[in-house]
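Appendix B. Raw example, untouched.
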Amino acid sequence: MNGDNTATPATLSTPAWLKGARALLVIAAAGAGYLAWVAIHNGPAAGCGAGSGCNAVLQSRWAYWLGLPVSVPAVLVYLALLGSSLLLKRSGSPDDERGSWAAIIVLAVLVTGSAFWFVGLQVFVIKSFCKYCLTAHLCGFTAAMLFLTHIPLATDPDTPMWSSGSEKRGVPRTAVWSLLLTGLVGIAVLAAGQILVQKERNVVKVLSPAGNTAGGNPVPSNAAPPPGTGFDSPNARLIAPHTLSLYSNEFIIPLDEVPVLGSPAAPHVIVCLLDYTCVHCRALYPILTQVSGQFSNQLAMVCLPVSLSPKCNPYAMGNIHANPLACDYALLALAVWRADPQVFRQFDDWMFADTEPPPVDQARARAAQLVGADKLAAAERDPWVEERLKTDCKLHQLNSLAVDNTALPQIVMGDAVSSGPVNSSGHLLLLLNNYLGLTLAPSGR
C-alpha cells in the first residue's frame, strides 16, 4: 500500500502495473464470458471431453450460484473492477479518486477470495481441474493483488472517506479495513449461496396412474386428464414380447424396430432420448453402453434420436438455442437404422466418440460406407424415418410436461422420468435401482 496525502493530483506509482492489471482483467473477463456462453448454450467447452477434468468441474454443482452459472456474476465482477480502474484519473478530484478506490478494494477482495474458494473446490472437493477456470482465476487474482498492493493510503488521519470537498488525497486506513471486510462479506455470500442452494441439473419425477407426481400438486382422481397433459404416468411396460407401451398405449414401441442397447427380450426396458448435439447426451452414451454390458440380458435400453430444433420437431418448446443440425444427425441415424440395423451400433459408437459430433458431410460419408450409398439414399426417402423422429419428439414433449423440464437426455424408467445430465455409471445405477429395483449381481457369481 502506498501513502499519499498531498493536495496535488495523485500520480499512480507506475503506469505499467495499472496497464498490466487492466490487461489481466480483460483476459479474465473473456475467459469467464466464454464459460458463461458455454453454460447458457448448454454446450461443451473446447477441448473438454466427457471424461476430462474441465468437464467434471463445469458439470458439477459448484459451477452454479443461486441457479446461475458462476461465470455470469464472475464476468460482471471482472468488468466492474476494470471499469472502476478506468475511473482512476491523475487529474481527478480527491473525492472521485477515493470513490473509485472504494469500489476497487471491495471488488479486488471479492476476486481474490473467489479465486481461493473455487481453486480450493477443484483441489479438495471436485478433485478435477478446469483450465479455463484456472486461467481466469489466476489472471483475476494477479490483477486484484496489484490493486491491493497499490492502494494510496492517506497520511493524514483526518482525511475523510465519504464527505466531499476535501482536498486531502488518499484512502484512510480505517476505511480500508472496512472495505476489506465488505469484500469478505461478499465472499461469504458467494460460498453460502453455493452451499445452501444447489441447482437441480438432473430432475426425476415419479408419476402415478392416478395423476399424483412426486413433489408436485395432486390431481383429483376424477379429473381423468387426457394423455399429454403432464399428469399421466409414462407407465413404461412390456405388453407383449418385445413390445413396449408408454402413456397408456399412446406409444407402442416394437423393440425389434428401434435402436436398442442390450437384448430386446430383456425383462426390463428403459427408453433414452438423445440428441447428437447435446453435450450431456454425448456424456451419457458411454455410460449407457457400460451399464448395458453390466446387466447382460436383464436390461434393454431403447435409444431414440431426437432434436429440439423446430426445423424437424413440430413439438419444439421454444428452445432458441437448439442446434438445427440436430435434425440432420437424427434423420441420418434413423436412416442408417432403417437401412441396416446390424451396423447401427457401429455408427452410433462412431457418432458419440468425440466431444462434439462430426461434420454432417463426414457423418453422411460414414453412414454410406457402412450401409452403402444406394441403401442409405433409399432409407432417407422412406417416410418411416421422419415419422419415427416426429413420434420420438412427441414423446420428449410429454416427458417434458411430466417433469416440467425440457432438458436432455431423458430416460423413462417405469413410472419415472429423468431429465438432464447423468454424471456417471454409478448415478445411472442408482436411478435404475431406485425406479426399477435393478441391482447388479455380486462380482464373481
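End of appendix B.
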